[in-house]
Fold this sequence. Notes:
- Helix content is 8%, strand content 20%.
- The protein is mainly beta.
- The chain has one domain (11-63).
- The longest helix has 6 residues, at 37-42.
Amino acid sequence: MERDDESDPLETCADCGAGVSDTDRGYSVGADAALCHGCATRRGGRWDETRDAWVDAPAVHDLAHEDRAFPSEA
Length: 74
């Protein structure tokens, strides 16, 4: 099923419950969870506008589950 609008939420923020879309600069927490930009920043993440990428990962240890894969922190 195609989405009509790319700003429609794809996921729900695992912290605050807000919708997170492709255009929100959210932080992916594995394949099935995400943080909105505000929560990711509040958790220590740092977004670089120039690189259009997260340069410091937010703390997500309390969101960890055995069945959830986390992105590598490079």
